Amino acid sequence: xxxxxxxxxGRKVSVLEDGxxxxxxxxxxxxxxxxxxxxxxxxxxxxxxxxxxxxxxHPGCAASDxxxxxxxxxxxxxxYLEVIDALGLERFDLVGACVxxxxxxxxxxxxxxxxxxxxLIDASGLFVSGAPIGDIFMMSxxxxxxDYSELRAMLFENDQxxxxxxxxxxxxxxxIEDELRRYQMIxxxxxxGFNPPYFYNRxxxxxxxxxxxxxxxxxxxxxxxxxxxxxxxxxxxxxxxxGVKLVKGAGHSPQAxxxxxxxxxVTGFLSG
Amino acid sequence: MHPVQLFCWHFMAYPHLPEDFDExxxxxxxxxxxxxxxxxxxxGLFQEYIDQLAYADELGFDGLVLNEHHQNxxxxxxxxxxxAAALTQRSSKAKICxxxxxxxxxxxxxxxxxxxxxxxxxxxxxxxxxxxxGGGPENYxxxxxxxxxxxxxxxAVDLVVRAWTDDGPFNHEGHYYPLRYVNPxxxxxxxxxxxxxxxxxxxxxxLTEVAKRGYCYFLSSRSHGGxxxxxxxxxxxxxxxxxxxxxPYRMGILMSAYVSETDAQAREECEEGVWYxxxxxxxxxxxxxxxxxTFGAGVPxxxxxxxxxxxxxxxxxxxxxxDVNDWDELxxxxxxxxxxxxxxxxKILDLIEKSQVGNLLIQFHxxxxxxELALKSQRLFATEVAPALREDSARVFANAYPxxxxxxxxxxxx
Lengths: 272, 414
Prior knowledge:
The complex is a heterodimer of chains A (272) and B (414). By secondary structure, chain A is an alpha/beta fold. Chain A contains 11 helices and 8 strands. Chain A has helices at residues 42-47, 73-87, 99-110, 136-139, 149-155, 162-167, 176-193, 204-207, 228-237, 254-257, 259-271, and strands spanning 2-8, 11-18, 23-27, 52-56, 92-97, 115-121, 215-220, 241-247. In chain A, 54% of the residues are buried. The mean pLDDT of chain A is 97. Chain B is globular, with a radius of gyration of 21 Å. Chain B is α/β, with parallel strands linked by helices and 414 residues long. In chain B, 43% of the residues lie in helices and 14% in strands. Chain B has helices at residues 21-24, 45-58, 80-90, 110-122, 136-141, 146-165, 204-213, 227-241, 263-281, 304-313, 327-333, 341-355, 371-400, 404-409; strands at 5-9, 63-66, 95-102, 127-132, 170-172, 179-182, 196-200, 216-219, 251-259, 336-339, 359-363. Chain B contains 14 helices and 11 strands. Chain A binds chain B through residues 60, 66, 71, 137-146, 171-172, 176, 179-180, 182-184, 186-187, 190-191, 194-196, 198, and chain B through 26, 136, 139-140, 143-148, 288-293, 296-300, 303-304, 307-308, 311-312, 315-318.
């Protein structure tokens, strides 16, 4: 694994990269690299066995600069177009989790020619009537000052999973940098996800048909933040997808909760 | 003579919560179910609260204070301007201070400029125009992104003030509020515009923005241990950096008081209302119990480096005002002053001497306090505390700020 800092239009962007093979761009979610850990998690370590993985930190996460004017998915897409240029990627595999999945879907709808294969993991971004996305901001306020069980229940299968306790422990984190990372991710998403519409772009659904790449939609079987109906809507709207692949024993963050199963699905699809 | 200005602040709490509210509900804010609202018991509630404020005007308070909250039991004024409008017709001398309109919650700040201008005309120039960005709960109430709410807020403040002072129509080239025609009718009665107050909780950026514009800083903290003194020192320093100087009328603080014939009687009469206020109204706002939304990672307006400092130096287990265990702890927080006229006078004068703050915004009605007790406390305060407090505070300020006369004459009061 190596880290580097790109200069993108005068802004710093931290990127982790590793492995060899097809270039694969990974856009992270909440219980994920850059948002909870400094380096790879077991899931990413599996991926780099069979591809060249690039994982930029979203603006404001890790050592990436914030983008003061960022206020929509549109702004985020143009940021990533510049990151892609800076990395020298022409055509690549694209994998995104949660808001990273939203950004990936937006990119693939705008630039279908750039994306060889697309993987969406519990991606937000769509409006699905009757299936609202859970409020991760409110859950980020602990009960009694220290109790994050409801946040864990939203991000994981339930509030008692080992991954949940390891990544979102109660009270102050032993290493303040870990807690800071989570804050940076919340602050990043607050810029474009908090105001209505909450974590979605109403226009995206009508644009999904433009996505040309074969697509894998992966969902934790009990996602309490982005309900499964969103996965079904992605699978229905993207012609190159083949239904939703469920990860058993996982909630919103299968990459953190079931790294081996999730990585097997993703690598199987990308190399298939 | 320049005495302390005494304001009567009414929050208009919802007083009819069930007795087991604290056990059953994790917050009094944003998500507190409005099925608890009892329409029958609440008949006449606003009338009663408005009567209490009108009585404060009769008693000679210098001002009446209102503020804006949404979807909560702490304050039933989503539109304080409606109450202010009623008060323009129910009061004759007191200033009417709305502290404040929450600008980021308005689609168009021009509406606030218009309503304040109407109120200033309706009250014959008695309006103090407060502006506030709104805190955590308000971000949730109206889905306002916290990260940009301050920028949004200051653009709106500057737009409102320009709308009052520059001749219209003009084009506002704003980021959040671009407007092609800014041309409000009516304009305010007071020239160049009503006094402007902005609340803050000692953040350097708010102090600086307030100082830059010459406005009055209102410390929204409810505890007056060392905080108030520090805030005043901090503000003085910032004012000097901007070529200005501190005098007591540049700052205001919020406190609560209850006055009765004796200390024992005062405590006995107000205790139920005080605990209702602390346990229920502050739950979700200034209590560790339940889910506190006022400050925290979910409302991430603080840049990451400052948040890191906060993480290093704060204790997530710390108690807040609403968590105090007993009356002695409450007394130490110096937030709610309870006692006979002599006791209340002594404690408030002590606070004035230490803080050198010239605007005291005092909450008399607490939680579910019966109206007649709030009226009695206001009356005893106005007749038996205020006269001596005015005299003593004027002496304190004259000693500490010998040049205050000149400063005021130079029109430095915002």
